[in-house]
Amino acid sequence: MPDNNPRFVSRLTRKTLALILAGGRGSRLMHLTAWRAKPAVPFGGKFRIVDFPLSNCINSGIRRIAVLTQYKAHSLILHIQKGWGFLRGEFGEFIELWPAQQRVADTSWYAGTADAVFQNIDIIRNHAPDYVLILAGDHVYKMDYGAMIARHVESGADLTVGCIEVERRRASEFGVIGVDEEQNVVAFKEKAKEPPTLPGRPDTCLASMGIYVFNRAFLFEQLFKDADTPDSSHDFGKDIIPSLIGRYRVLAYPFLDVRSGGQAYWRDVGTVDAFWEANLELIGVTPPFNLYDDSWPIWTYQEQLPPAKFVFDDEDRRGMAVDSMVSGGCIISGATVRHSLLFSNVRVNSFSYVQDSVILPDVQVARNCEIRNAVIDRYCNIKEGSRIGLDQEEDRKAGFHVTAAGVTLVTPDMLGQHINYVR
After folding, report:
1. Helix, strand or coil for residue 125?
2. What's the burial of 265, exposed, middle or buried (CB within 10 Å: 0-12/13-18/19+)?
3. Where is 81: in which H helix or E strand?
4. Which domains does the chain have, with CATH numbers?
5. pTM value > 0.90
6. Phi, psi values for residue 139, rounded to 5°
7. Of 169, 292, 189, nearest to 241 (Cα)?
8. Range scoring the smallest mean pLDDT among 4-8, 328-332, 361-365
9. I need a labelling partner for 64 at 20 to 30 A (CA). Which of 18, 251, 284, 392 fits?
10. How far apart, in Å, do the first and last CA atoms of the chain sit?
């Protein structure tokens, strides 16, 4: 089959322009996105969420990439400028930052995902790709886009939509796709109470990943039609895809694990609970998402930091981390960390105890603190004797955010520590 031929795939990826939609507010992450866009939120000890679709592009052989920004994008822009400047322009490779510029309408910012692409249509035309790969910038997964593009071309589809399998009871959280036996899309419903299910599998649905492959000319045609539709919300999932079903060839591309044939790892870390859970999944003996995969590295801005250090070995004052991930620059000084993930430059001081928690970069935990079931945002300075995550009512009284699952979120603003740093 042509899609198994590396040269066939590489020719297609060279002709592809990837657009990463990274302008989202991510309001369900609550205070974690008060000062940063969702794709800029730290994840996995040393990365940011946007690193995952960017790394997927590089590992898939796609070296023409644009990142579309809008909401509080400064930290996202700095991260990409610092960590993603290694492509060579003389070889036609690039990662461009496309901030919202009101290029089409003088008075409006991006109204939806389709409008974000439409407002940059002149730049896309100038790059002259054969195929346009549209990606959400706020999901965590590893995916070879080359295979999806090859399937799109081989099938003669006008549009191909990346999909994951979800249980029917969870399908109302997603845009759900109905397909026939040949994976042709026959229905698309956003967060439907009665979603279409897979043929012969009444308990399973196909959910859109927010990943689309378009032929360039077809994309332009649909964007202009949508822009001229007065009552459109100018969104791919809500407007453009439903309008194509039954009129054009729309193909579903299930995202499956190559080895097992089952559902591959994909996480929308769009809530505090999902963010906490997905980070803690990484520390397992055999995590569902392997960051130690040399064949598919996750690239990022690599800050120059010393190794993590654990000091003191007294019976009641031993610096140790058990069943945890600890990043560079951390110092565990006579404290205990259990089943937690510590980002870079975290210091936990003597007689403190941290368990089942995600501690973002540059956090200081003073002496005699206890932290459980928590997410501590960047630059927090936890004062001596603090108790976080032990009593939900006390956490709420302190001004912290407590989730439905009982995870406590703490940010510098909640502590009265107004940090004037880019995050």
Report:
1. helix
2. middle
3. helix 74-83
4. 2-281 (3.90.550.10), 309-410 (2.160.10.10)
5. yes
6. -125, 155
7. 189
8. 4-8
9. 251
10. 47
